[in-house]
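Project standup — Tuesday

K.O.: blocked on the structure for the chain from last sprint. Re-posting the sequence here as requested.
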Amino acid sequence: MGATAGPGVRRQVIRVALSATGVVALMYLIVAAGVIAFTTINLTADVDRRITGTIGRLPPQGGREPDSPFDPGRDPSRPFAQLNLTWTVTSDGRVLAQSGTPDLPAELRAVSSPVTATISGTQVRIAGQTVGNDKVVVAEPLYQVGDAQRTILLGELLIAPFLLVSVFAGAALVGRRVAAPIEAGRRRQLEFTADASHELRTPLSVIEAHTSLALAQDRDAAWYRTAFTRVDRESKRMRRLLEDMLWLARFDAAHPPKANEPVDLGTLARQAVDRFAAIAETRGFQLSVIAADTGAVIAAAPDLVDRLIGVLVDNACKYVPEGGQVIVTVMGEGGRASVIVDDSGPGIREEDRQRIFDRFHRSVVTSSEAGGAGLGLAIGDAIVQATGGRWLVDSSPLGGARFAISWPAVSLG
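H.V.: unblocked you, prediction finished:
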């Protein structure tokens, strides 16, 4: 999209990507905080179960001096060598502890349910329970909880940049893909409007010129007849142009279904040839149809297929010279049904075949009698795409152009 999208579209894509990244960052922050909180709660609950389970197994310590859990030479951030710190608060208020165990703060001597406290600069989880006439208090440093919190936080900080960069890149990529058809549609609309204005300007100018001349001074009857003939021709041309433009606009907005009901291509081809028979007779060329009972039936909207065949026959009739030939062939083969329109006109140059379906594009240099504004094949292409057909544009055995469309055939049985 970078080569076709304007700066405004690119800025919009970046804004959308930044907004998506911001939302993901906020959600990630909430989830990260939740993970840390959940881990902290669970690890703290494990500590609580250990210290409360230990209390019942510890007799009053009295003055016994087992291995000291306090080692002043250890890492200052982890001064306690053992997990459990125990104190015994006697009935007369004395505090008995292992040698080297830090003093039990007075406010914690009556503790019962597990609480978080700080002893000698170390955060611990502490609980107490009456055993006999004394009270046993047990504490465990929250080393494991702190380690887990730091590990999780480090992991989250390492993951966050990669996640946010990936989200931004993904949102930008999706935004570019979404904006590409929108931007292409906007450009097509602008081009369509510009081309339509250009095509309408010519007939309007002719009508305006003849009207101005007619009003400027009196003319003879022959002049007025000639002027009105030109005005009539340009009015009809403008009406056809407007009808085609309105049809394309409605078609683009309606999004017709690709399949509707069984359609007999042979019947529609014969009807189209009948409609144009008078034109062929007037201009002196041969128009025929070859549509044997081949079972060429497709699933589509009948009015769309009928218009498509009419567009192709009309296009061939415009360009075929006097004494020429137009043949419409309907056939079913290999599980597909086809309509082929051959003419003996000037044909289509190889370099023009890539653009013949562009709106307002004329594929060949023709005389003014051919008329048209380059919308016929654009209408045909829109119908082919909507009905799931496939184009084949080639040189005709008659010397002109061949337009063939095929669809998957369906069985009436």
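K.O.: great, moving the ticket to review. The helical segments are 7-55, 143-216, 221-254, 265-283, 302-319, 376-386. The chain has a mean pLDDT of 82.
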